[in-house]
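Pilot study result, target chain (335 residues):
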Amino acid sequence: MDRAPGLSVRLKLTLSYAGFLMLAGAVLLLAVRVFLPRVVPPGSTMSFLLRDFRPAAIIVMTFLLVLGLLGGWLLAGRMLAPLTRITDATRMAAAGSLSHRIRLPGRRDEFRELADAFDTMLARLEAHVAGQQRFAANASHELRTPLAITKSLLDVARSDPARSTGELVERLHAVNARAIGLTEALLLLSRAEQQSFTREHVDLSLIVEEATETLLPLAEEHCVSIEPSGDIALTIGSPALLLQMTTNLVHNAIVHNLPDQGTVWVSTSVRASSVSLTVENTGAKLSPQLVSTLTEAFQRGTERKRNDHAGVGLGLAIVKSIIQAHDGTLTGLST
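Predicted structure:
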């Protein structure tokens, strides 16, 4: 923003200090001039000084003016020194350097609190930008993979025109379906992060019923039983996003379960000022190191493997974004 030039804050404070000092000195001299003759006997030395009051007052006021300007300039510079460091850090951040921190020393005051808040903001912004860069790199890699596979399949078909097209069509259909699924997942993740949805009253227990009914064929295929339970849990949010969140959680609980006779428990509960959704299964225990990365985009459990139900690696990332968009908290991802 273009602004007209003006006085610096340091100069304004200097003039304020000097003006206040001059005003205090003038009031003091006026008080001396008014009240001192009433208490000083005539013919005394003080009476002589009162007759030459004006030159003395001019000398005193000149001294106070010089003292106020010099002292005010130095004092204002010392007081505003932390702002200079904060301004320099702001300019470095605006230029793209997010790793710089102010780290203002000293006891807590308004300037230190501002500097600490700015350092916290820079740390979060740096982590967010790093996460976005990793996400963009991973998304580019994931989107490039089906395109590369499609190109390879088409090159093989073109080099061998006599080859049956049935298998080629099936493989192209599978690759295209995965690319479409990835694109839709990315759009859903973006929608959740931007909170671009309409909020309405939702019963989370009905969302659980719909999600479990949808995934029942998948559970039967994996020989997993789903046991929903809980109370009516009324909340406010997007039914579509909350359904996607629940579906992703139950889907993961089905796929990452015992190879046979596994169980998934899905329950809702009501607390004092919130509702909760709990999804548990009989799957293998996970290490804390692995758990800490599960909500990152394109993470697929213990390894980045692909199978019929591996998904695109955005399931829990979408869950986390939907929960945050609804001012909720994702907990319980532990061993």
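One observation from the pilot: Residues 199-325 form a domain with the Heat Shock Protein 90 fold (CATH 3.30.565.10). A full batch analysis is planned for the follow-on phase.
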